[in-house]
Here is the input.
Amino acid sequence: MDGVFEQRAAICNIESINGVYGEALEQPVPVNGEGMVSGWRALVTSDGSLAGAWLRVRAGDGTIAFQAPLPAIEERPDVEALTGQPVTRLSGFRNVAIRDLPAGTATLEIVLDAGDAWVRCAHVRTVVAE
Here is the structure.
């Protein structure tokens, strides 16, 4: 999954980290080396299916500290309305665990397999592990 990534907006959102949501996510969220992440991802591939997605945690030095698949298991009619594509109705993920985070600041990002390219969501969140 390394290599060149295209960056896109409005295809994902990390909506909560350890129960913190809304405007509070605009600031780094304190975590104790682990956490639970929820949100949605809704990139549709050229064949009309929902792209595979992963949650990645990048440490302050840019290395990938943690990575986990993001299963689309929760119905999100709001995302379907946003995208106008019925396949995105089942695009939510809930309580995906992140763990073993190194101390310091890290960035949470969603990456998706568009088939012909890897895509990184423009929307990221920051955590601070103690």
Summary: The two ends are 28 Å apart (CA to CA). The chain is about 5% helix and 50% strand.
